[in-house]
């Protein structure tokens, strides 16, 4: 084990000395440096290794992706690449993408020694079918048919836009989970997986994983993984710069001087474009964002160039298209109506929208048609430096309209819960990415995510309720030809532009910071085989590609 010099690591060592192992452990290679994988989320309050619960420690830190594995790997930064079979050795889609047949890979064992079979795939997808709350991608599974080593999964609609959501599902062992009463709340304290690593220690500051010596994918270069949670981005950047952390998915202020230049031979920061954005989700069920006129006005005063330059410090491209799609990766999907329409700060236009809707000003304070002053609160977790700066910039933009916008930075756990239940007025969050714009728009507008206020939603946090948008999104993903798909997308984009269900503020590429001092084989511009993001289910591919540096 590599001894760390930070207080966090000292506490980690002490915790390991007094706590027992929390999972089955296999002996690891005796040589090789450990790898520390980091997040800026503060102390890990409780342990949960449930792979389908967003707030579970295994999901938030990403270590569940080294224990459990997907069926196949879709390269979301190069979606035209062939799918890489993983736990499924063969993947065959029907012509209409309403069914997929998967052949279970031979020679795979769970980390408790049991054989992996097609039964485990079938069992996992039946869990999603019988417990819709686990199916956060809303796959709409209608049937799971087992035939020897093959499983055919059928869906109510086309999975054309969701192939990655199907294939990236993490598979769990039937012999463990069949005895679970409530899979939605099960904490999975001793996670049994087919993946290359096993959970060996858990602590509120870090998690230790140990390499298996019987992994089906072969020998592993890295013997030990530490997943560490630092208090904020500043602490994480310091850890990356001085070598206490080796790999992270996090925004780094002044990345060139603060990180890359500290060791230009080994420190790498790579932002790979995808179809995703940072977005201000607004609560469309409560004031002031329940009024489309106010949403339109706010959208007109947000300065996206300023967000990219100041909040993201020039590390990501500006989101410019009024459709919210990142360019140039999204150019082919922008409808002809909006090809040349970009976001521009237009204070005069925003004030006209408000005046036409019955708003007035009293001593430069905006009042709504009922005569009440307009105020709202923007919220992101403390320590998320780029997002904190981002909401401060948006608050400044709101002031130009005469609106007082307060900035709130709670701890990440409280914020996460409030985000899901709709207990907010405005937050910054991200959209998922995929091979098409479907995920971006669905996350913001789709009625399939709708939950009453107080119930936790997985997306559409702002409770935007548009049956027309929901229908168009369904038509897009189920279309039988490109022309029908394009027509549906035009409808989606028109609703998005006109009704402003949320406000994209910046592009959201896949970000990875890592060093090559101990290991090589990382993805990058010269070999973009996967996003360099340790929280993605595709990170298992990276872990198996790493080799010791000479």
From TrEMBL:
GO biological process: peptide transport
Protein name (database record): ABC transporter substrate-binding protein
TM stretches of this protein: none
Keyword 4Fe-4S belongs to the record: no
Similarity comment: family membership: Belongs to the bacterial solute-binding protein 5 family.
Molecular functions per Gene Ontology: peptide transmembrane transporter activity
Keyword Signal: yes
Domain Solute-binding protein family: 83-437
Keywords: Signal, Transport
InterPro entries: SBP_5, SBP_5_dom
PROSITE patterns the record matches: PROKAR_LIPOPROTEIN (PS51257)
Gene3D superfamilies, alphabetized: Dipeptide-binding Protein, Domain 1, Dipeptide-binding Protein, Domain 3, Periplasmic binding protein-like II
């Amino acid at each position: 084990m590599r001894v760390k010099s930070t207080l966090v690591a000292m506490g980690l060592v002490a915790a390991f000395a007094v706590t027992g192992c929390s999972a089955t452990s296999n002996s690891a290679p005796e040589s090789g440096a450990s790898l520390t994988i980091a997040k800026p989320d503060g102390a890990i309050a409780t342990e949960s290794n449930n792979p389908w619960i967003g707030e579970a420690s295994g999901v938030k830190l990403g270590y569940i992706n080294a224990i459990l594995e997907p069926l196949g790997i879709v390269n979301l930064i190069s979606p035209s690449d062939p799918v890489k079979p993983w736990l499924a050795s063969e993947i065959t889609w029907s012509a209409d993408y309403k069914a997929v047949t998967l052949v279970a890979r031979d020679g795979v064992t769970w980390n408790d020694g049991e054989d992996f079979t097609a039964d485990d795939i079938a069992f996992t997808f039946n869990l999603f079918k019988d417990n819709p709350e686990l199916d956060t991608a809303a796959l709409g599974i209608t049937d799971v048919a087992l035939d020897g080593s093959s499983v055919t999964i059928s869906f109510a609609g086309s999975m054309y836009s969701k192939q990655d959501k199907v294939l990236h599902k993490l598979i769990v062992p039937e012999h463990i989970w069949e005895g679970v009463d409530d899979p939605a709340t099960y904490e999975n304290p001793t996670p049994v997986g087919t993946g290359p690593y096993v959970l060996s220690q858990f602590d509120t500051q870090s998690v230790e994983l140990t390499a298996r010596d019987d992994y089906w994918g072969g020998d592993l270069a890295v013997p030990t993984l530490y997943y560490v949670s630092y208090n904020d981005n500043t602490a994480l950047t310091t850890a990356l710069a001085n070598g206490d952390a080796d790999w992270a998915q996090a925004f780094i202020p002044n990345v060139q001087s603060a990180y890359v230049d500290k060791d230009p031979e080994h420190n790498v920061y790579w932002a790979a474009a995808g179809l995703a954005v940072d977005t201000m989700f607004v609560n469309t069920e409560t004031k002031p964002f329940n009024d489309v006129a106010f949403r339109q006005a706010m959208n007109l005063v947000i300065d996206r160039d300023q967000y990219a330059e100041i909040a993201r410090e020039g590390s990501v491209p500006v989101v410019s298209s009024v459709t919210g799609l990142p360019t140039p990766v999204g150019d082919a999907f922008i409808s002809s109506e909006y090809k040349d329409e970009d976001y521009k700060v237009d204070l005069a236009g925003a004030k006209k929208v408000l005046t036409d809707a019955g708003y007035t000003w009293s001593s430069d304070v905006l009042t709504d048609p009922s005569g009440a002053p307009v105020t709202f609160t923007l919220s992101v977790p403390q320590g998320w430096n780029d997002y904190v700066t981002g909401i401060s910039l948006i608050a400044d933009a709101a002031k130009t309209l005469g609106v007082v916008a307060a900035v709130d930075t709670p701890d990440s756990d409280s914020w996460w819960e409030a985000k899901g239940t709709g207990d907010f007025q405005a937050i910054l969050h991200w959209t998922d990415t995929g091979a098409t714009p479907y995920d971006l728009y669905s996350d913001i507008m789709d009625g399939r995510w709708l939950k009453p206020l107080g119930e936790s939603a997985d997306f559409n946090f702002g409770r935007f309720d548009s049956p027309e948008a929901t229908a168009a999104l369904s038509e897009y993903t189920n279309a039988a030809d490109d022309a029908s798909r394009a027509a549906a997308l035009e409808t989606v984009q028109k609703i998005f532009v006109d009704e402003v269900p949320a406000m994209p503020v910046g592009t959201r590429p896949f970000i990875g910071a890592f060093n090559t001092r101990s290991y090589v084989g990382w993805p990058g511009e010269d070999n973009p085989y996967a996003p360099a993001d340790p929280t993605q289910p595709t990170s298992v591919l990276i872990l198996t590609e790493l080799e010791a540096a000479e």
